[in-house]
Amino acid sequence: MEQLQSSFCFIFFTFTFLFSLFSFSLFILRLKPCCSCDVCTAFLSRSWSPEFVNLSDWYTHLLRKSPTGTIHIHVLNNIITANPENVEYMIKTNFDNYPKGKAFSTILGDLLGKGIFNVDGKCWRFQRKMASLELGSLSIRSHALNVVVDEIESRLIPFFSVAADKGEALDLQDVFKRFSFDSICKFSFGLDPGSLKPELPVSELESAFDRSSMLCAERAMATTPLVWKFKRFFNLGSEKKLKESIRVVKRMADEVIKKRRQSGFSKTNDLLSRFMGSISDDDYLRDIVISFLLAGRDTVASALTTFFLLLSQNPKVLQKIREESGRVIGDDPTQDPAGDPTREKLPAFGDLRHLHYLKAALHESMRLYPPVQFDSKFAKQDDVLPDGTFVRRNSRVTYHPYAMGRMERIWGSDPLEFKPERWIRDGVFMPESAYKYPVYQGGVRVCLGKEMSLMEMKIASLSLIRRFDVQVVNPDRILRFSPGLTANVSGGMPAVVVRRRELPE
Ligand code: HEM
Ligand SMILES: *[C@@H]1O[C@H](CO)[C@@H](O)[C@H](O)[C@H]1NC(C)=O
Ligand SMILES: *[C@@H]1O[C@H](CO)[C@@H](O)[C@H](O)[C@H]1NC(C)=O
């Protein structure tokens, strides 16, 4: 009996191994690893790396040189474009031919399930409709504002105050990640992970969530999915860790959902409660909520981090933001309009609309450092892009906001300069076409959290700018971004904080 079992095992493993080898070679052949064009050779030998610290800059260099603003990395079967006409075509005109695709959804599938971020077609359309309806509602918007204001008053400002008193450097990236994680968790499912409490606790949810998204990103970086699929099948190494982390995230989300079912959801205003009205499948609910955590967390943190970097490099812009806020809100950051001396005055929602320069500065900052540096789709059918590029079915097509922000043909002769004035005409903020500036994507599947994120970033940055001088340590160093779904600065963003004005007792 035992012998039978072990020979069965042997046959099974041999078969699996041979089969993997076979599909691996097929995969490699399909990729055309032998392509000898200059770009592919440089890609494979990494000969670009001494000149360009990071891959995005090398792509930017190639895209600038390309007359159409489009390149083709044959070995990856990947077309990359920085041409606004192509971008419009992909994400709007012929949207249906450019879904996220199966390759992407299997990579994130274990974590995100059927959540909005990870699906196409009918399932996506349904969630999209429901979510945009909810996010557009007045009550959700005011809930979002309350969550953010509360997190700023009770955690962000006190944290910076302590850092200022102690004179110790803090890591902006880490602090903003905690800030945005607390905010998005409270907003989407009414759970407070408390990760920005003074002692910076390790939140179980946050670290499990971090680990999950990092390990998923590693899957995405792999040249072939076979290795991780193999590891997943046998529950080995990183895949074992990933499985455990995902289990923690799902368990915590499930607990919240279960409690909410018991206590009733009609009185609470978070996104989960709102979705509960129309969805009775709790696994589906959980997937939807987790998608929101992923979408709304690292993006905001990344944008805030590079915003403060650019402000450290450009004190004149900082000065102008302060002048504008003084004009619109008044000069004393500590004065509460309701006369409550214990409350520090935060910019009110109504004020935000008048802060044109601040809005311009945030957009300008994300032009140079888009939180999502590039975004890929997979072509369903053979197609031709507006610039004439032929797209074979199943190839990956990527638009590249990072490169686009650095193109002279889009932004004029000084694309690398941080100039909020680009966005202002006659004192008023003028939006740019989403196809030239696809930082929030655009078209049919434009980011659903755009307004909310701008509100969050305006209030958070302004609250800090009005109270403190935040000086990034060594602001002119060359940045390195670690690979992942969202731009993440390797080594963090250490900064020194000084209080601008003594607060009254
Ligand atoms: C600076 C902040 C943000 C940036 C730059 C940003 C950017 C993006 C981008 C590029 C996409 C498209 C991703 C893709 O389809 O591949 C996206 C989708 C999405 N974002 Fe954001 N986002 C931000 C903040 C937020 C926030 C705070 C929320 C949550 C309230 C959010 C919710 C979503 C959702 C739900 C989607 C999926 C939409 C869909 O697939 O139909 N985002 N975002
Ligand atoms: C990459 O490196 C360059 C220097 O070559 C630096 O200026 C740039 O900010 C970095 N960008 C990213 C996305 O890492
Ligand atoms: C982001 O960078 C920080 C600082 O180097 C690092 O500790 C963290 O693991 C990185 N996160 C991801 C998701 O890569």
UniProtKB/TrEMBL annotation:
Binding site for heme: 447
Keyword line: Heme, Iron, Membrane, Metal-binding, Oxidoreductase, Transmembrane, Transmembrane helix
InterPro entries, A to Z: Cyt_P450 (IPR001128), Cyt_P450_E_grp-I (IPR002401), Cyt_P450_sf (IPR036396)
Domain of life: Eukaryota
Gene Ontology MF annotations: heme binding; iron ion binding; monooxygenase activity; oxidoreductase activity, acting on paired donors, with incorporation or reduction of molecular oxygen
Cofactor(s) it depends on: heme
Keyword Membrane: yes
Name of the protein described by the UniProt record: Cytochrome P450
Organism of provenance: Centaurea solstitialis
Family: Belongs to the cytochrome P450 family.
Membrane-spanning intervals of the chain: 7-29
